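Structure ticket #2291
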Amino acid sequence: MKNRLKKHSLKFLSIFLSVFLWAYVLNSEKVKFEKTVALEYILPTDMVFATKPVQEVTFMIEGPRAFVRTVSEREDRLVIDLNRANTKKQLNFSIDINPAQLNLPFGMVVERVLPRRLDIKLEKKASKIVPLKLQFTGQLPDKLSLGKTRLEPSEVEVYGPRSLISKLKEIPVRPIELDGLPGHESVPVEIALTDERMTITGGFDVKFHYQLKASSSNLTLKGLSIRYLSENRKIIGNVKFATVKLLVAEKVLKNRSNISSSVQVWADIPSGARGRLEVPLKVILPPSMHLLEISPKTIIVNIE
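Resolution: structure written out below.
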């Protein structure tokens, strides 16, 4: 029995050593692969790029197969400090990528870097306050016209290369969809920078304010309950119902049964208000409807 166990033990040991040696040889085998690394530039405070530089480089690497997956899936980023690289304060110069900048496990070497040299072109930074330009797309529903339009803010401060900023007269916003305006009084818009070298100071929340005018209404809703928007529950109003005149899309008119439930009338009570107060009424509508008139426009409430 001891001899048999000894023989089996030797067999298992031989198999284990064989598998281990096979795995070691396989993983220690040298292979070549590519790794793309993003570049992050640190600019001098008074400079911007005259032309956009290379944003990433590719390292041609050779090393043991065992580390390939770890290195290739790792997120690396090379920081290029142009303050240190350009001590002579030149506008046009070149930077060589040092392969040693990429941290690699033992046994891995960089054979090539593409591109090896980065051409940098800088320009003095300038700023300017320029107006925003409205742009539209699509069409308003029939019988509606756009009036009293304004952007808030109407102008922004832009930074960029001096040669570009000096010629800048205005900056457009991304086209506003006209068919999405009914049912609102203002919509957010995005600034469309015409050149990627330009930046806007701060985070501007630009809104387009407007009024829609209609030639006539095609739906009147009566007896809409007036709700109170307030933390105080003890509110007594002199009027409980309102009438609204609307311009509604034809496809919505075909299903009149659901229109009343989608229209809400609110009395916005100021926070902390007490006693007798006159407050305006607000109407909340779906995007497919447009308010022409509400009656009454204000109500008197008593707040305890």
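Closing remark: The chain is about 15% helix and 45% strand.
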